[in-house]
Amino acid sequence: MRSLALFVVTFVACTRAAPTAPNPAPIDASAAAIAPVADASDAEPEAAALEDAGPAIRAFGPYEIPFVGKRKVYYAVSKSASGTHRLLVNLHGMCNPPGYACGYWLESGSDAGFLICPEGNTVCGAGGPSSWDESFADMDRDLEASIALVDAKYPGEISREGSILTAFSRGAYAAPIIAGMHPNRWPYLILAEADVTLTTYALKKAGVKAVVLLAGEPPSFVQKIVLTRRSKRMCTRLGSRC
């Protein structure tokens, strides 16, 4: 198993606090490579059964609902069925379906809030896995549309305060650009497997308070040293804690 190189960058910045969605459908087990599938109809009975034992708990998923064309939105709900919950989203990578990129975040994501992951606008080859070939602006549009669909299904449950944008590969290249399009909308970024160029000016202008850079360890010792030095130089350039 590969180990991970992890760098956390924090910033001080000023922050400020669709259509009716169809019923979610169970995910095809072949598409959910990471987590077992739960039926959305199971969530309410489980919550009711535990109602007298304390805070309501429900099945968190994962679930899918139709999106655009043949695309779907992959998502998990907060385990807690009461109050409002933090928004976490994920943009998957090239030839990398949301069931894979988001699947690793299901447990921690549903502990923290709602996890929403739109499917890319294209596929790799005939019948291949989900991918992207649209612009970052269009990825941003699709992301917001997917959030609106889930929000309509669970009205009043999703809070955008302190929202977290997680992203993998191509999604991670798009994430800082998307954050810059909407200052203060995405104060926290988690960027996996992408050699992203970041600047203090752009991140502060976007209202980003913290960034996590996450990558698999390079195969060689020399490459590991190069990656570590490059990451430290980025931290120095950003004037941030790493």
Question: How would you summarize what this structure contains?
Answer:
The chain has 7 helices and 10 strands. The protein has 242 residues and is α/β, with parallel strands linked by helices.
Could you walk me through the main structural features you see in this protein, from its secondary elements to its overall organization?
- The chain has seven helices and ten strands.
- It has a single domain (7-217), classed as 3-Layer(aba) Sandwich (Rossmann fold), CATH 3.40.50.
- The longest helix is centred in the middle third of the chain and has 18 residues, at 136-153.
- A hairpin with a 5-residue loop joins strand 2 (63-66) and strand 3 (72-76).
- The strands form two sheets. Strands 1-10-9-8-4-5-3-2 form an eight-stranded mixed beta sheet. Strands 6-7 form a two-stranded antiparallel sheet.
- It has helices at 43-49, 98-101, 106-112, 136-153, 170-181, 200-205, 221-238; strands at 4-10, 63-66, 72-76, 85-91, 113-118, 122-123, 130-131, 158-168, 188-192, 210-216.
Q: Number of helix segments? A: 7
Largest sheet report:
8 strands, mixed
The strands making up the biggest β-sheet line up spatially as 1-10-9-8-4-5-3-2
- Give the beta-strand count: 10
The overall number of domains is 1
Radius of gyration: 18 Å
Helical content class: 25-40%
Indicate the CATH architecture. 3-Layer(aba) Sandwich
Q: Please identify the structural class as seen in this structure.
A: alpha/beta
The 3D shape can be described as globular
* Annotated CATH topology: Rossmann fold
Distance between the termini: 25 Å
Percent of residues in β-strands: 15-25%
Following the backbone from N to C, one meets helices and strands in this order, namely EHEEEHHEEEHEHEHEH
Mean pLDDT: 79
Low-confidence stretches: 11-23, 25-51
CATH class: Alpha Beta
